[in-house]
Amino acid sequence: MSEKPADSTTSADLPLPYADRPIASAPGHWVLARAGKRVLRPGGAALSAAMLGHAHLPGADVVELAPGLGRTAAEIVKAHPASYTAIDRDPDAARRVAAVVGDLGTVRQGEAADTGLDDASADVVVGEAMLTMQGDKGKAAIVAEAARVLRPGGRYAIHELGVTPDDIDEEYYTELRRDLARSIHVNARPMTAAAWKELMEDAGLVVDWVDTAPMALLKVGRNIRDEGVGGFLRIARNVAADRALRRRVQGMARTFKRYEKDMVGIVLVAHKPAS
């Protein structure tokens, strides 16, 4: 299904995904979106910008998987790609992204692991904060699909949640994953840099660039930088005014604080070699 908004529709006019779900049980990233947060990437907007720079977007046919609120979509179309296509399984997210990109792109409701796009039809595939939410098989299926739709020489750029160090204690890592899942109400499975690199290589891709940033999603300084002072104040007012929202955000903040030395935002850009 291709989504095109009415001319007068803006993304702010449209419902958020999971808007009908109680705050107590909704996925954490959509809870933060209800609070007014718009940058939902673990390494922040600066790390996303660096990733997009390494992906070489101008003049490229770009596909974005699970674009969410459309924040990165807006940055992609500003870079003047030859085309922009988004795939999101959530109809509310698809409509919001369609409102963001307007006539500068196409948005389809569909699955990241089965996009329906032609083989070798894209120069760049972008995905952020979505592989982390998948199990091992789901991760592998999505990366394989990205590799399938890329042309030889095409780039796959991801921004995900990482854990450090590469030799993290397995029992501690299990505890981290369990506590994170309980806090954000998503069975998140962050991985080490070595594991993310291996995931790309297993799909036949060659990793060209890796970078990390602190996972400071709820830190005051990061939010002021990412959302602006006005955006930060809006979030603070919304959280203060809603007890259920405040409880969820505080719970997530405690978990993030507990593991702040062990979690990072991580970006990788890989290319598909010529066969």
Task: Explain the overall architecture.
With 275 residues, the chain is α/β, with parallel strands linked by helices. The protein has a single domain (20-271), classed as Rossmann fold. The chain has 9 helices and 9 strands. Strands 1, 2, 3, 4, 5, 6, 7, 8 and 9 form a 9-stranded mixed β-sheet that branches. Helix 1 crosses helix 9, helix 6 (170-184) runs antiparallel to helix 9 (243-258) and helix 8 packs antiparallel against helix 9. The chain is globular. It starts with a strand and ends with a strand. Residues 3-8 have low confidence and may be disordered.
Give the overall form.
globular
CATH architecture: 3-Layer(aba) Sandwich
Rounded to the nearest angstrom, the radius of gyration is 18 Å
Low-confidence stretches: 3-8
The helix/strand order is EHHEHEHEEHEHEHEHHE
> Could you estimate the helical fraction of the residues in percent?
40-55%
Count of helices? 9
Summary keywords:
275 residues; alpha/beta; 9 helices; 42% helix; disordered N terminus
Write the layout of secondary structure elements.
Layout lengths: L1 E2 L24 H8 L8 H12 L5 E5 L5 H8 L4 E6 L2 H11 L4 E4 L12 E7 L7 H14 E14 L6 H15 L6 E2 H10 L3 E9 L5 H22 L1 H16 L4 E9 L4
Parallel strand pairs: 2-3, 2-5, 3-4, 5-6, 6-7
Antiparallel strand pairs: 1-4, 6-9, 8-9
What is the compact description of this entry?
The chain has 275 residues and is α/β, with parallel strands linked by helices. It contains 9 helices and 9 strands. The relative contact order is 0.18.
